Model the fold of this input.
Amino acid sequence: MMTPRQSKKQLAEKPENGLLQTSQLMKLFKAELKDIYWAEKALTKVIPKMIKNATCQGLNDALTSHLAETTNQVTRLEKVFEYIGKDASSKKCDAMNGLIKEAKSKIKSYKKGAMRDAGIIAAVQKAEHFEIASYGTLRQFAKTLGVTEAVKLLEETLKEEKAADAKLSEVAQSINVEAAEVKIVSGVSSSSNG
Ligand SMILES: [Fe+2]
Done:
């Protein structure tokens, strides 16, 4: 079991982690870690806004459980930084920043109800797919670099992201049917039954 500072240094110096500090791939691994660390932390701030705006209980539940997972994923990334002997730090992720901007504009554009719920799902699934790509890459880098402990942690998160995406696809089925019933009145969406 790892103990704080001391073991962080030791782990980075382990012979089997010999590739760690000298490889160019390590530089890219660190950069990608900083990027996803920023993205996850940004998501912990924006998911509560989505929960507030979601009306469907199924969507609310899916977002609430993914918020808890996301907080845990932030902690997992901090452990990955520890395994490579670095303090956790973030760098603004332009891609996630753009996806979050899109999500906020979708919330603004549609009236609360099925349409806004469908917009939230569309936005969160884009973010999930970005994360799935990021964690897939990070896991592969960690494997190549021989950071076995990090591979396990990144794999756990990757599984959670895939499951969250599948859950949202499931929730979307009924929401999309409801949203399809919303008629466009003079360029503004309004519910046909309300
Ligand atoms: Fe995540």
In short: The chain has one domain: 21-190. The first strand starts at residue 183 and ends at 185.
